[in-house]
Specification:
mainly alpha; single chain; globular; 10 helices
Length: 245
């Protein structure tokens, strides 16, 4: 029964993954003119409809940049940032929950492998800082990182907080620089991406260094009880010899 259940989950996971990949390559990305017309027709519900579309579509590996740019174009700076970061949180939570629901059992047996266990421990121990650092690096895809955190041992609350904090700078930059929809990437946007990548790399380096230091500190600590037993045993042995004499 357990084998059948695992196979069923594997099939479901493969179908969902295939659907996400197909959606990423086949769903049309609306042009700025189409977005303007859609927003004008939607009226006051534009923000809600946009939030829902953003949150649902980016659960699949579809780049968030176009949605952030559209948020700035359609909703303005302040409302665009609020809607974009809210949709980011919802999308990240959905991707995490979906991966944990259907993928956790499938990879549980592989968590004992050295490389997988090392990545799992670094992410889990790093908590908010680890997730936020990875989210700051533009080259790390948004949706796949959520899947990875979902199937590994990362807890939901640190993951969600780290996702929001790490995604916030880039989201603000892209929403504010909504004029990048003209077709070229502004140098200021590239500079922001570079700064975020450096900040994320520094955060990951701190986590790696902290884990290494913790490992060096913990290792000799396991010998302390043995040393204490020897120290305690020496006076008692000495007293026993004196009493025998």
């Amino acid at each position: 029964m357990d084998v059948v259940s695992r196979r069923l989950k594997l099939i479901v996971a493969l179908v969902l993954l295939a659907g996400a990949v197909v959606a990423a390559f086949t769903l049309p990305v609306p042009s700025p003119a189409e977005l303007r017309n859609w927003a004008a027709g939607a009226g006051a519900v534009t923000a809600l409809v946009f939030l829902a579309a953003y949150a649902v579509l980016t659960v699949a590996p579809i780049p968030r940049t176009v949605f952030n740019l559209a948020a700035g174009l359609l909703l303005g700076d302040v409302l665009g940032i609020v809607v974009a970061i809210t949709a980011t949180a919802v999308s990240g939570a959905l991707g995490f929950g979906l991966a944990r629901l259907v993928g956790r059992d499938l990879v549980a047996r592989h968590l004992e492998r050295k490389v997988v266990r090392a990545v799992d421990e670094r992410l889990a121990d790093g908590g908010i800082l680890a997730v936020a650092s990875l989210r700051l690096i533009p080259l790390v895809p948004f949706a796949p990182l959520g899947y990875c955190c979902g199937i590994l041992s990362v807890r939901f609350r640190p993951y969600l907080i780290g996702t929001v904090l790490g995604s916030l700078p880039g989201t603000i930059a892209v929403v504010v620089l909504g004029d990048a929809l003209t077709g070229s990437t502004p140098p200021a946007l590239l500079a922001c991406y570079g700064a975020f990548a450096v900040a994320g790399a520094v955060g990951l380096a701190r986590i790696a260094r902290g884990t290494a230091n913790a490992g060096r500190i913990r290792q000799p600590a396991t010998l302390d009880p043995v040393r204490e037993e020897i120290v305690r045993a020496e006076p008692s042995q000495h007293m026993r010899r004196v009493s025998e004499e």
